[in-house]
TrEMBL record:
This is GlcNAc-PI de-N-acetylase. The lineage of its organism: Bacteria, Pseudomonadati, Pseudomonadota, Gammaproteobacteria, Alteromonadales. PANTHER family: N-ACETYLGLUCOSAMINYL-PHOSPHATIDYLINOSITOL DE-N-ACETYLASE (PTHR12993:SF11), N-ACETYLGLUCOSAMINYL-PHOSPHATIDYLINOSITOL DE-N-ACETYLASE-RELATED (PTHR12993). It holds the Pfam family PIG-L. One of its GO terms (molecular function) is hydrolase activity, acting on carbon-nitrogen (but not peptide) bonds, in linear amides. InterPro entries: GlcNAc_PI_deacetylase-related, LmbE-like_dom_sf. It comes from Alteromonas marina.
């Protein structure tokens, strides 16, 4: 039976880094895939009008590559979720989730170093309570290069995946989308580089005994 799948990205590129191959795999299996971007560069005064126009064009290209069934930008300020009320974030997330009614939701990890990621995690966990969103049967956290791996803590909060998705046949499609975000990448050994993306896919693939994989921490799964 085909499923409705939603990826929630604090910023454009998180969806592709964290679960781009998995999204392409879902689509190949006939699932509907939906893209929720939480923050919008248009709301920030830190960018020029030219940068904002370029970002809008980029987001459209990414959407076309994935062929999302729907997409929505919640319009919050990047790197500003700590000054947003939790209620406002929850309200907008809930509105889109009620519209899509996703079976599966992919979200950032709770202990990522970027505060936007942590606020999004907390809001989604609240919204996805079974009595609030009974249609959600699975919630899983993806890992984001330069955010998840730099979430250092004196307590054991490191990303420890319990789900591996074989993306061996979808790695090139993922790479094609990530190439659209060229300005966000730098040469190795920069943590967010194409070499690092490939290396992580291979490491996760080795753990799952496949060529390439993406890894997740499953928070909830209702059979």
């Amino acid at each position: 039976m085909n499923k409705s799948v939603m990826v929630i990205a604090p910023h454009p590129d998180d969806e592709s880094l964290g679960c781009g191959g998995t999204l392409f795999k879902h689509r190949s299996e006939g699932d509907d895939i939906h893209w929720c971007v939480v923050t919008d560069m248009q709301q920030s005064s830190n960018y020029t009008s030219e940068q904002k126009a370029q970002r809008a064009e980029l987001v459209e290209k990414v959407s076309n590559h994935f062929d999302f069934s729907s997409e929505r930008n919640l319009g919050f300020t990047p790197a500003g979720l700590d000054s947003t009320t939790t209620g406002a974030l929850i309200e907008k997330l809930k509105e889109y989730m009620d519209f899509v009614k996703p079976h599966t939701v992919y979200i950032p990890y709770a202990f990522d170093v970027h505060s936007d990621h942590r606020y999004v995690f907390d809001a989604v966990v609240s919204v996805s309570k079974s009595f609030r969103a009974p249609y959600i049967k699975k919630v899983a956290c993806y890992e984001t290069l330069s955010e998840t791996d730099f979430g250092l803590s004196p307590i054991n909060t490191q990303f420890q995946p319990n789900l591996f998705v074989d993306i061996s046949h979808f790695s090139e499609q993922k790479k094609a989308v990530l190439s659209l975000y060229q300005s966000e990448f730098d040469a190795h050994p920069f943590p967010r580089s194409f070499d690092a993306v490939e290396a992580l896919e291979i490491i996760r693939g080795t753990q799952a005994h496949v060529e390439r994989a993406e890894a997740f921490v499953v928070l909830k799964e209702i059979a």
